Amino acid sequence: MAENRNRPIRLGMVGGGAGAFIGGVHRIASRIDGEYQLVAGALSSRPEVAKESGRELGLADDRIYTDYEEMARAEAAREDGIEAVSIVTPNHMHFGPAKAFLEAGIHVICDKPLSSSLEDAQALASVTPKNGAKFLLTHNYTGYPLMRQAREMVQSGALGKIRVVQVEYPQDWLTEKTDEDNKQASWRVDPKRSGAGGAIGDIGTHAYNLARFVTGLKTEKLAADLTAFVPGRQLDDNVHIMLRFEGGAKGMLWASQVAVGCENGLQLRVYGDKAGIEWRQDNPNQMWFTEFGKPKQLLTRGGAIGVAPAEHMGVRVPPGHPEGYLEAFATLYTQFAAIIRGDGAEYTDVLPSMADGIEGMQFIMAAVRSSEQDAAWVTLEG
Amino acid sequence: MAENRNRPIRLGMVGGGAGAFIGGVHRIASRIDGEYQLVAGALSSRPEVAKESGRELGLADDRIYTDYEEMARAEAAREDGIEAVSIVTPNHMHFGPAKAFLEAGIHVICDKPLSSSLEDAQALASVTPKNGAKFLLTHNYTGYPLMRQAREMVQSGALGKIRVVQVEYPQDWLTEKTDEDNKQASWRVDPKRSGAGGAIGDIGTHAYNLARFVTGLKTEKLAADLTAFVPGRQLDDNVHIMLRFEGGAKGMLWASQVAVGCENGLQLRVYGDKAGIEWRQDNPNQMWFTEFGKPKQLLTRGGAIGVAPAEHMGVRVPPGHPEGYLEAFATLYTQFAAIIRGDGAEYTDVLPSMADGIEGMQFIMAAVRSSEQDAAWVTLEG
Amino acid sequence: MAENRNRPIRLGMVGGGAGAFIGGVHRIASRIDGEYQLVAGALSSRPEVAKESGRELGLADDRIYTDYEEMARAEAAREDGIEAVSIVTPNHMHFGPAKAFLEAGIHVICDKPLSSSLEDAQALASVTPKNGAKFLLTHNYTGYPLMRQAREMVQSGALGKIRVVQVEYPQDWLTEKTDEDNKQASWRVDPKRSGAGGAIGDIGTHAYNLARFVTGLKTEKLAADLTAFVPGRQLDDNVHIMLRFEGGAKGMLWASQVAVGCENGLQLRVYGDKAGIEWRQDNPNQMWFTEFGKPKQLLTRGGAIGVAPAEHMGVRVPPGHPEGYLEAFATLYTQFAAIIRGDGAEYTDVLPSMADGIEGMQFIMAAVRSSEQDAAWVTLEG
Amino acid sequence: MAENRNRPIRLGMVGGGAGAFIGGVHRIASRIDGEYQLVAGALSSRPEVAKESGRELGLADDRIYTDYEEMARAEAAREDGIEAVSIVTPNHMHFGPAKAFLEAGIHVICDKPLSSSLEDAQALASVTPKNGAKFLLTHNYTGYPLMRQAREMVQSGALGKIRVVQVEYPQDWLTEKTDEDNKQASWRVDPKRSGAGGAIGDIGTHAYNLARFVTGLKTEKLAADLTAFVPGRQLDDNVHIMLRFEGGAKGMLWASQVAVGCENGLQLRVYGDKAGIEWRQDNPNQMWFTEFGKPKQLLTRGGAIGVAPAEHMGVRVPPGHPEGYLEAFATLYTQFAAIIRGDGAEYTDVLPSMADGIEGMQFIMAAVRSSEQDAAWVTLEG
After folding, report:
1. How many CB atoms are closer than 10 A to CB D276?
2. Beta strands in D15-147 (DSSP E)
3. What is the mean pLDDT of residues A258-262?
4. In a domain, C324, yes or no
5. What is the domain-level CATH number for residue C251?
6. Pfam families this protein is in (chains A, B, C, D) (predicted)?
7. Are residues C288 and D175, on separate chains, in Cβ contact within 8 Å?
8. Is-contact C252 C225, C-beta < 8 A?
9. Which class for C246: exposed (0-12), middle (13-18), buried (19 or more C-beta within 10 A)?
10. From A24, which residue of chain D is nearest by alpha-carbon distance?
């Protein structure tokens, strides 16, 4: 991972005020390789919070906004205005800001999922960005070096023809009834702010996106059984899905927020007719790779490689020195910076895009629709 | 695990001649605790093989048979005749011998699944055993001490109300087209000898049985997607199933014989509203147990226990000295010996029975039926 | 692992009465492959215990002894007398029985260490066995298939020239003051029954023997720091040793009975100039093997092999079905049976011998001597 | 981990030009929490490299130096001069810059070990920093949240009286003869630049420091056996040490650069009379904790805690989202920033200090001295 050798990109942020989680993650990710400098923000819709949060982050008073549309206008008009903006609001508040900034010619980095409804997602996709403004969706798990390597291994044929894809994302933090005061939890279980999906939208999309990223397989149909286990909960907290991919591969996806003992157990297993891989996010510096009839190999991030080369994978420190979640997140930011500078053509293919966001929304809606029909097979397109 | 303090039970065997795998396993299992002595056998239907195999195992010539019906008659007539028989033939050859020996008043230890068709299974269940002859089905994974403990933990309420059950059994040994000369493989992929299910019958039933054993949950419905990935294969080599249990719990079952890198990855994970457990057969002396909001605990076979007592679990050597597959298998044999001797009332509840065998066949047939209907929800009863 | 095709060898046992641990282990080990049948015993020096224990194990009254010398005489005189005897008494009671049975022409299977003093060990080595009676020392960890394979890999040069050997055996069961009533613990902490070494003799010898077995390296010198951490304990409960091998390799050995959290953590790591291996007894079906500059490979018992063939390794069930402590122990018994029958020349080299027992005693005494001299370097020979 | 709410501290750097490893690590660490901004540097003693590296990092030309003394003078004289400097040169080049900047009143962040000789280390300790300039030694592994927690657990008595400390740091990257062109390797095996110790200074000090940090135990004596396994190598590439601590605890330390299969296997295990802990750097988000007689618990960074509170531990993202090497490194930088600002009194105790650096040098020299005397016991003081 080369260090930034350029002037940092001027960055703004929408959402991410006091008490937020993912806003802080985006800020660290933007800083790790020195590619961005935060200079403006509409960190909260509540003026006091916006002001205080902005000042604490060192923003000048005239670049602290409470209205994202005003921010888009004002920043686009400044000579030293922001070049990119991070949108880290709850799902239902992605569409508005993303549209506003793209139309103002400001590059957009948007947290996933793309929106809270497929309509919003499609509307956003039809926006014409001014001056070719670019869009990045932060499906951050695709930034892990070994997931990049896994993708290359699939593409190079090292696994042969893919047959089975098992992906899961169990957590346990919503095992009990959600406290209204828990800012992280409360919007995620509220259909008005999350959209029609609970766990399916919050973590199911991550699992789905990662499986798609690594295998490249297109989904033909899915059958979903969504459940809200916690009494009174309106949105699903457990997701069981069977997948059929074009070309005949099959898969299972399990996402849960009530699997006691699982902190953040994203796991991907892919089996082809030549070889299989297995990877877990909670120890992301290792990946199993087994060729049929040979011993299992433990590939390590940046370490000795059995099959595919590990170049341009976003490795910062030598194998054995673990990198983690923030570094993977930062890799998306840093490679998007290269694209913004017109120097990142090689990353266009791997960075999560508007199209991935649309597909993610289709996936969520298809799962909800299938589940409402007693787990009937449905297509993503509806 | 107390050592045998009695005269060994006289044992016969049907199947298990030269080249067989599971026959040898049954013989070791019968010997470990000194509870049985093999004295008769119809080890093969081919006279030469039967004779040679019998002699190699030290059987007297007059107790080497080629016909199981003759064996049942002759042994029942001898004063020193066998008291129990192990049936270790391919699936389609379970019914005949089991019926013959039960009707001859000889206890039966039968490999799983119970038969190759539900009709046979039900017919066997309606047999009236002479002299109260008993029946054991060797769902051997239930013999692992930690699976016994898991069952007790569920029953004692340590996990709370069960919500999610994830069970899987991936292997890779049938990844490629089966060699006709591979005795183990050839009958398993042949509908005439295996029945209508491939992986579903060979390993899917084990996974299903283990989940049922530990959770006690009854299945309401299942939706199955069975696939034969290897070109030309007639029976499924990959099984995807969604499960709905009575009372609202949900589950997923994955079994595969084409998951490259998996030797024998039977894994059970059960999550309740209070706690969760996770166990893998390939390192069976450990089980994760997590109470919500507390650190994960690694319970060990016979070791310090978080919740439930571990008595009568079949532990032979101290924690840290691993026991394995053969010991778990032996525990079934040994506890069945106690039942045969009229001294094993405490084991009646935990040993796999005729009823478990019927349910296993229902499970296989339901999965096949569902898959034929594009993964429609079906009940076990049909 | 081929099953026994012969008449079982008639076996006796000295020690192993009610309440004993290792006696039961030896009995199971003798039965697993059907090679032995227990027919006589001096299971305790207390007549009542001897009688009751013998009857419970199904021995005829006239073959229950209380005196091992009488047993040796009587059994040697019987036409159907025992052909082999297992000695499973505390350390100080190994020498007498071993000498008596060897001189009576009865094969001896002796628990480790060879004795409680080097003098006894040497005296035993100078005994002339009648009729070529053979001797086996049950350093059971050498029976694990992957340790056999590791030894072959070292011999074949797969690791290159060995540089570093790290072996350890931590337990925690003696963390607190020993209860007098704990039969297992009490003799192990008593110099009269254990000899001059505590942990060094009980588990340190196992660790040392395993390192020697796998690497073949001869010890040039060692420096030992033995400690009794528990107040009032007379024998060491923690062992720190630095090793220098002939040819320049170096090693460390750690054994402890006060390492809280360790059940039975025997671990061996060997590093050569070409490759390294790592193995743990508590998950003995796996071994890491890494060639320099390549990914780590996880070799499995009986599974796909990176380098050396795994024949004659004592594998009973397919990879993924774990075998454990009892199976490894049984492999020693079974291969010794082949030697007894004159059919086991191939095993002479791998089965632990009288010479290994002498070296084990030298190792214990050298460690005690070094520790008394403030961890001075000493040779095994003194 | 609170985000920086202040103006970033102006930072300079000595060393770390093109081709360097640890310089880049320091720069990322300084950026992660937004606490520092790099504005000046003497990145190389070669003018061309210094200039080019400086420009690439965005330094103004007048703040690119080739001489650290000139840099110290010039920066101290500027109103906007650097407030702190990172020293990331090879060991023999730590003393000069550290002295110069401390005497110029500029805070110093120095890579470990403190120097290449004990004399230099002591001379540095006797420098009187101008204006109370502070000093930080980057023993980065102490920045891992679970190592902070382990230290608190020891201090709180959760482990009881410490008995045994096993620490190790195996690598394999110097298994073969070092290529002269490998910038990272070449100075580490050169006594002129590394000092008298090879592996002992490069990684042995890290292991020693971490054990000291967590246990708080003072070393009474050590006996060291250092080896250079690679033919022609002048400095040790393998370190075996036995440790005796004040109060009676014992320990072993193993460090190696020739342990094939080990990338960066720093591991610490500490056993007291009540409980034990085990931690590995390559999966640093987990730590085993076992209370005697209870099941092992897997504590996670920021997760549910068995014993001690995990506040102020430097956790940035929720449990299950792994943090790694760079985050731990950044925690040292960030907490040192608080001290620089006069707001970090709570961190004084945990941040590695000049005294730790002196002790580290004493440790290196004692190990070398002991090894030269055939592993005689020596004290740190000589």
Report:
1. 28
2. 36-42, 84-87, 107-110, 135-137
3. 98
4. no
5. 3.30.360.10
6. GFO_IDH_MocA, GFO_IDH_MocA_C3
7. no
8. no
9. exposed
10. D3
Interface contact D166-C290, CB threshold 8 A: no
**The three-state (H, E, C) secondary structure of B203-234, written as one string:** HHHHHHHHHHHHHCCCEEEEEEEEECCCCCCC
Q: How far is CA C173 from the centre of its chain?
A: 19
| Contact state of A297 with C297 under an 8 Å Cβ cutoff | yes
What's CA C201's distance to the chain center, in Å? 11
D252: which 2 tokens? 């072993």
C163 and C251 share one domain: yes
| Same domain, yes or no: A78 and A208 | no
C237: in domain: yes
D131: left (phi over 0), alpha (psi -120 to 50) or beta: left
Number of domains in chain A: 2
Report the alpha-carbon distance of residue C161 to residue C149 in Å, rounded: 17
For residue D126, give how far its alpha carbon lies from the nearest alpha carbon of chain A (Å).
34
Chain D: nearest CA to C314, how far in angstroms? 27
Whole-Å CA distances, B142 to B209, B290, B333: 8, 21, 12
Q: Closest-CA residue in chain D for A329?
A: D321
Q: Write down which residue in B133, B158, B188 finishes a domain.
A: B133
Q: How close D169 comes to chain C (CA, Å)?
A: 12
Q: How confident is the model at residue A192 (pLDDT cuts 50, 70, 90)?
A: confident
Q: Classify strands A84-87 and A9-14 as parallel, antiparallel or unpaired.
A: parallel
Q: Which distant-in-sequence residues (6+ apart) come within 8 Å of A115 by Cβ?
A: A91, A92, A94, A95, A121, A124, A195, A357, A361
Who among A262, A320, A322 is closest to D322 (CB)? A322
Residues D51 and D151 grouped into a single domain: no
Is the CB of C304 less than 8 angstroms away from the CB of A297? no
Give a yes or no: residue B345 inside a domain: no
Q: What single-letter amino acid sits at C360? A: G
Closest chain D C-alpha to B288 CA, distance in angstroms: 9
Looking at D133, D168, D193, the residue that finishes a domain is D133
Contact assessment for residue C327 and residue C145, using Cβ atoms and an 8 Å cutoff: no
Cβ atoms within 10 A of the Cβ of B4, count?
20
| C308, pLDDT greater than 70 | no
Residue C66, in any domain of the structure:
yes
Cα separation, B281 vs B268, in Å, equals: 9
List, for residues A145-181, the tens digit of each pLDDT value: 999 999 999 999 999 999 999 999 999 999 999 776 7
Q: What is the pLDDT of residue A191?
A: 85
CATH number at residue B56: 3.40.50.720
Average pLDDT over chain A reads 94
d(CA A33, CA A26): 13
Q: Are D125 and D43 in a shared domain?
A: yes
8 A C-beta contact, residue C62 and residue C50: no
The verdict on C92 and C195 lying in the same domain is: no
D283 and D179 inside one domain: yes
Are B13 and B127 in a shared domain? yes
pLDDT tens for each residue of D325-335: 999 999 999 99
Kindly report the backbone phi and psi dihedral angles of residue C140, in degrees, each rounded to the nearest multiple of 5, phi listed first: -65, -25
Q: In chain B, which residues touch A (CB < 8 A)?
A: 163-164, 166, 168, 172, 175-176, 223, 225, 227, 229, 238, 240, 242, 244, 248, 250-252, 254, 256, 258-262, 269, 271-278, 288-292, 296, 374-375, 377
Q: Which residues of chain B have pLDDT under 50?
A: 309-310
Q: Domain residues for A202?
A: 143-317+353-372
Same domain, D52 and D83: yes
The answer to whether the CB of A110 falls within 8 A of the CB of A98 is: yes
CB contact under 8 A, A282 and D24: no
- List, for residues D342-360, the tens digit of each pLDDT value: 989 999 999 999 999 999 9
Q: What is the pLDDT of residue C44?
A: 94
CA A99 to chain centre: 19
